[in-house]
Amino acid sequence: MFSDRLNGYLRTAARDDALAAFIVAILLIPQSLAYALLAGLPPQVGVYASLLPMLAYAALGSSRVSSVGPVALTALMTAQAIAALVPADSATPGISATDAALVLAAETGLLLGAAALLRLDALASLLSVPVLQGFSTGAALSIALSQLPVMLGSPARGFNAPDVLAAWWRSGQWGQAPTAAFGIGALVLLILARRHAAALLRRWLTPDAARLAARCAPLAIFAGAVAIVAALQPAEPAAAHGVALVGALPPMRLPIALPPLAGALWWQLLPSAATIALITFVSSLAVSEGLALQRGEIVVARRELAGLAGANLVAACSAGMPVAGSFSRGAINAEAGARTRMAGVWAAGFMALAMLLLAAPLALLPKAVLAASIVLAVLGVAEWAAFAQAWRYSRSEFAVMLGVALLTLFSSLAIALATGVALSIALLLQRTARPHTALIGRIPGTEHYRNVGRHQVEQTQGVLALRIDESLLFTNARQLPGVIAGYLAQHDAQPGALPTRRVLLLMSPVNHIDLSGLEALRALHASLARNGIRLDLSEVKGPVLDALRAGGWSAWFDGRVFLSHHQGMLDEHGSAG
Amino acid sequence: MFSDRLNGYLRTAARDDALAAFIVAILLIPQSLAYALLAGLPPQVGVYASLLPMLAYAALGSSRVSSVGPVALTALMTAQAIAALVPADSATPGISATDAALVLAAETGLLLGAAALLRLDALASLLSVPVLQGFSTGAALSIALSQLPVMLGSPARGFNAPDVLAAWWRSGQWGQAPTAAFGIGALVLLILARRHAAALLRRWLTPDAARLAARCAPLAIFAGAVAIVAALQPAEPAAAHGVALVGALPPMRLPIALPPLAGALWWQLLPSAATIALITFVSSLAVSEGLALQRGEIVVARRELAGLAGANLVAACSAGMPVAGSFSRGAINAEAGARTRMAGVWAAGFMALAMLLLAAPLALLPKAVLAASIVLAVLGVAEWAAFAQAWRYSRSEFAVMLGVALLTLFSSLAIALATGVALSIALLLQRTARPHTALIGRIPGTEHYRNVGRHQVEQTQGVLALRIDESLLFTNARQLPGVIAGYLAQHDAQPGALPTRRVLLLMSPVNHIDLSGLEALRALHASLARNGIRLDLSEVKGPVLDALRAGGWSAWFDGRVFLSHHQGMLDEHGSAG
Q1: Residue B88 above 70 pLDDT?
Q2: Fewer CB atoms inside 10 Å of the end CB: C or N, chain B?
Q3: Cβ neighbours for B570, distance < 8 A, ≥ 6 positions apart
């Protein structure tokens, strides 16, 4: 049975998956080292986080092409969480950064797993588009800025803009020439390769082969850097002209163990883990949903949660760090033709093989070259156009986007996210609190009623016809009687107007009435009745009417409910008015 | 000029105002003493808070009949704030309860004033009906329970149910017989007077006079209690048979001074003051709006803020405590015929006069009698029927109401309110996150389109007509493409169905589209286009269409927008499908 399926797989999809996995692995090797360094961890942690977690996602996840492993965003969040725990100045004994990363991965995995069990996938919707876009742009800038001193050979380190700039200023040194030569040289070559390699290679290769070969260009650049380092200083490579190198990786042994079970550490890291879990889920889901939409596939949010939970728990038990779905690797995996989640298994295999074969040359890779590759990767994610679009669409959402980006850059990722969520909710509350209302009239010759201010319409004497463009909720309910009273006063002040006998509310935009809205409707009904005015409703939605009936409104409501607004306007009492 | 207006006032409204003020003062004398004791303050603080603050509200406020002064709710909140500051066990020197009350009043006044300047009156809408009703019921029970040991003569004190019950248990004493006789006797007589005094007096008086005279019944009961105490122990009244008495009030001198300007104290009390300010505003506004609605008057929320701010600042400078609009006194003021805010000035005058004349007899009033009057007053405010109504209308809002009531009773008022606001917002988010969607069809022979599941309607082959009963917001935007895909799959799975060529969304319930909603619409449009399906919209509201145009949607939107859904269904492409 299983062997049948395996044979089927080997006959059909295996070749495509393996080829895509090879291309992904070429990107993954430097990224795994770089993101571990970005998180303030030894480079091999990134390698370990790229092996077994991929298998766990392949077993449990939902997306066929998502590539789960170390990513820049969670690496930066891990760095900030560890920095808050172990201040750089004080040498607190007992807490190592690798232990903290393991605990973070374990907690992230447990939280994601709990969210999957409790069906909390809807929580992801708390992150609105402006918050996500502001956050990813701010984080990209923050990561690029943190890599700049590494690229130039300055000892300055930090996880947000003020820290990095202050450290750079204090160090009194812009960088170091040989390191900067590697860093800037690699950046320029990587940019040139990305822009022109495919076009250049097409002179000799078929377009498909050229595109694939161009994907290997970064590997050639890394190999070149290693060759230069080896040529310059073969005897003592670790200090080649003062250029910081990745250094010898410990022998691959994939240590399997439970993460450290220290209660205090778990408690201290829990808030950071909650933020990482939320961002891991939302950013990974955005990647896999985006890819699925292109491929006509479906991603199940709960299975995505389960896959990410499994990947993080496995990372916590195999000397790793928090992992998530990578935007760049997922896109390359899809483009290179991956067909099933087995591509992730292949990629892990290639990764392990590469580590066995390439450990020696990788030790000679300058950190500045890795930093250059991070800078290029994250700046590709920054969404500049999104700011312009938000500015045109909604000034308040633009303000949220900008605020979140600035907080991400100048404060911490967690504060930026929390503020963004709070602002999004505040905007939503404000929107429902100030509903748009419209006096409506009949478009002549039809049964359609539209805003008096926007269309040429007919109004009926003695009937105030209004549309309230919002659900009646606690945020706006208290204003309802006042708003109607304002329209009544305005209406009756017109010269020659007959006194209003009925108020007819078009309820089709009212999607819900909560208890506060019900009370407001009752107060409106009572105050109109006191002035001899009847309150009628039209086009009340089924679920809303059901709720009103359940709330016992028949005990006090004297008006009528019409299926269509036009019928309501033609009502005998109305036409007599 | 001024004398003209004064003469005019004296000719017209003065008699009515003065009469109403006299009735209010009869209620205010015991309430001012009782609420000061409830707040853990000397009784004269309540008296001072009933004099000048009323004048400030008369000058700045908006309601004609609201009666501002000490109220049970803010007295309990003051007590909790002071108790958190000065734990009963530890004798912290330096901070006196009266100082803390002055600072609370000053901060409450400043916060209300700032809210008036910044037009933050809409913040009141954060308190939904279930939160307010749960809160007032829980607070009423909490206050009644805190007065029970006072009424029965037990030394147990506390400001929430667990505290009171624990203290009562620890005291090992249910009460003390002579005190309990006063307390229970007063309670029974007050209940009898409220129920039967007016009917009884109507035998001898006109109905109006009987109603007014019945209002004086509590005064007679208090006078009776004082007479009994005086008769029992004329020589040493303060310890009459162990019955705790109000005791000699210090000579009236109305000390005018700035509140203590201790930075640490102000900082510690600020969170409590913010809660008191919010509750003061919302509860006072509820009272004055309720009364204004009955009288056909208008209350301006910002002037109400200003009036309450002035009253609290004056209270802070005249040896008072936080003040708010009283439900019971406002209602009695209106019923007794008050016509202008000058009634408050009269009431303050009567109050001052009473304190000058009645200080000696009031010293003999047993505290148990005051406690009985508080129990009766607050239990009248508890909204039992509201719980039954909420249960029928919405289980989740009932849960919020009950939760807030229980937290108010068993925890602190501030925690209960914060939880209630958070739960209300969570319910609103959840509601917008799970929008009701309906497949719609044409009611035969009309141009009306209704839910297929609720009405006998006709559907058109090849056109999927849907209504989404919610604004497109970040809380639900991510689900939109999935929801439509689900309908499409269901539609195409019907036997004999033509493949869907168009999706037509009826947009009349969509009151707003935020940036996340715009992105979701774009993703939906793209995924439908990939399957050769056109996305059309009908009955898009003016403001929504304006925003879509500003957001540059014409760059990607290929469908059409119809003024009416019926026109959209008749579109040539649709009818061909």
Answers
A1: no
A2: N
A3: none
Query: DSSP state, A555?
Result: G
Instruction: Compute the distance between CA of residue B502 and CA of residue B570 in angstroms, rounded to an integer.
Output: 12
B500 backbone φψ class: left, alpha, beta (φ>0; ψ -120 to 50): beta
B441 bridge partner residues: B450
**β-pairing verdict for A437-442 and A463-468:** antiparallel
Which residues is B472 bridged to in the sheet? B513
Q: What part of B 440-459 touches A (C-beta under 8 Å)? A: 446-448, 451, 454
Least Cα distance to A222 among A264, A190, A270, A194 occurs for: A190
* Residue of chain B with shortest Cα separation from A298: B482
Cβ of residue A390 closer than 8 Å to a chain B Cβ: yes
Residue B195: CB atoms within 10 Å: 11
Token pair listed for A196: 């022109």
Task: Report the distance separating Cα B395 and Cα B492, nearest Å.
Answer: 37
Contact B338, B65 (CB under 8 A): yes
B474 reaches A (C-beta below 8 A): yes
State the ipTM, two decimals: 0.79
Please answer whether residues B190 and B372 qualify as being in contact, where contact means their C-beta atoms are separated by less than 8 angstroms: yes
What's at A89, amino acid-wise?
D
Q: Is B145 helix (H, G, I), strand (E, B) or coil?
A: helix
In this structure, what are the phi and psi dihedrals at residue A82, rounded to the nearest 5 degrees? Answer: -70, -40
User: How many angstroms separate the CA atoms of B452 and B470, rounded?
Assistant: 18
pTM over 0.95: no
Give the pLDDT score at A305.
Answer: 92
Measure the CA–CA gap between B447 and B565, rounded to whole angstroms. 8
Mutual angle of helices B384-393 and A515-530, in 10-degree steps: 110
- Does A481 lie at the interface with B, CB-CB under 8 angstroms? yes
Strands (E), B417-481: 437-442, 449-451, 463-468
Residue A89 has pLDDT above 70, yes or no: no
Residues A525, A526, A529, A530, Cα dihedral to 10°: -150
HEC letters along B66-82: CEEECCHHHHHHHHHHH
Closest approach of chain A CAs to the CA of B575, in angstroms?
A: 22
Task: List chain A residues with CB under 8 Å of B550.
Answer: 392-393
A33-64 tens-digit pLDDT: 989 988 989 988 999 999 999 999 988 988 88
Minimum-distance CB partner of B389 among A454, A479, A552: A552
Q: Are B502 and B574 in contact (CB under 8 A)?
A: yes
Confidence at residue B577, expressed as pLDDT on a 0 to 100 scale: 32
Instruction: Determine contact, residues A422/A404, Cβ cutoff 8 Å.
Output: no
To which residue do tokens 């004048």 refer?
B55
d(CA A62, CA B45): 67
Cβ neighbours of residue B3 closer than 8 Å, sequence gap 6 or more: none
Comparing CB atoms, the residue among A397, A485, A526 nearest residue B514 is A397
Give the containing element (helix H, strand E) for B223: helix B217-232
The strand pairing partners of A178, in sequence order, are: none
CA gap A38, B339 in Å, rounded = 73
Is the separation of the CB atoms in B336 and B18 below 8 Å? no
CA distance B506 to B527: 19
CB B476 within 8 Å of CB B470 = yes
CA count, 13 A, side-chain hemisphere, B326: 32
What three-state secondary structure class fits A251? coil
In tens, the pLDDT along B213-238 reads 887 888 889 899 999 988 886 555 44
Residue B161 near residue B145, CB atoms below 8 Å? yes
Q: How far apart are CA A432 and CA A474, in angstroms?
A: 9
First-to-last CA distance in chain B? 80
Question: Which residues from chain B sit within 8 angstroms of residue A523, using beta carbons?
Answer: 293
DSSP state for residue B535 in the 8-state scheme = E
